[in-house]
Amino acid sequence: MWLVDVLRDTLQRQCTVMREPVSVEERVAVGVWWMANIMSYRTIGQLFGLARSTVAGIAMEVTRAISEQLHHRLVALRNPDRVMRAFAAKGFPQCVGAMDGCHIRVRVPVPLAHLYMNRKNYTSVLLQGTVDNVGRFVDIVVGQSGQSHDAHVLMRSNIMARMEAGVYVPGNPTRTFEGVPVPPLIVADAAYPLRRWLIPPYKGHLNAQQAHFNKVQGRVRNVVERAFGRLKARWRCLLLELPVELRNVSPVVAACCILHNLCEDRGHAVPEVCTEQELRALAEAELAPLEPDPRTADAAGERVREALKTWLWRRARRP
Question: What pTM value is reported for the model?
C-alpha cells in the first residue's frame, strides 16, 4: 500500500486521459506483476481482464512513475559510517561500495542492432550498479550500449564526478595507511580503472601480498555480484530480452533496482524459484571483464592500492 500511496498522484493524472480509467491499485499491481514475471502482455491482460495494449501502456507508466518518484529517495548512500564499518569488518577498510556492470538484453530495431551488439553477439544495454555492504543499490547508471567499455560508462557517470571531487561521502573522511592518506573507496573488478578512490584487483603474475589483497578485495566485491543475482531473481523481466522500446529501457531497469532496494529494506526474501547456486550463476552470467583502459591509469590510485596491500598483509601476518 505504501507504494500505491506514493505513486497515486502521478498515476491518477495519467488516468484522466483514459475513457474508463483503471484504478491506481490495479495499475500498480499490473506493473509490478509484469516486472516480477516472465509473461506476455496478453497473458497478464487475461489475468487482470485488460487488453494487451492497456497492459503494455500501464507497465510503462508504472515503471516511469516509480523511477521519477522514488529514485532519489531509495537509491542513495545512507549512513556511510555504518557501511564503512561493515566493510571493514569484512576485512577491507574505507570501503563505501562495490561497483560492477550488468548486461540487460534489449530489443533493438534492425538498423541500430550493430550499435548495441555486445561481445557475445546479443543486443544489450549496460547497468552500472554500485551497492553498499548489504547489496542495496546506492547508485545506478543505465542506458549505455552493451558495446561500451565499463570505463566509458564510469567516466560519464555522476558518481565518478562526485568521488573525484571528494563530495560523494559527506566530509570525505580520510585515514592514513602505511603513510598514505586513503579516502573513501569503491571496489570493482579488473575492467575498471585504478583511481585514488576506485580499487580493482591486481592482474598478471601475483606475489603473495598481491594474491592476498585480491582475495580480500574479491570477498568484499562479491556483494555486488550477489545483488545483481537477487535483482534478476525478483524482477524476472530482466532475465530475457526486454519487450520495450529503447526509450523505455532505462525507467524499467531503474524501477527494478528501486524495488530491489525496497525489498531489501523490508526484508523480503528472494523467490525460492532460484537456489543459492542459481543466484550465483545469474550474477556471474556476464561477459568476461574487459582490459582496463590504460589511459585511465592513476598514480595516486596505485599508491593507495599498494598501501592497502601492505597493510592487509601485515594484518594477516600478525600472530
Answer: 0.88
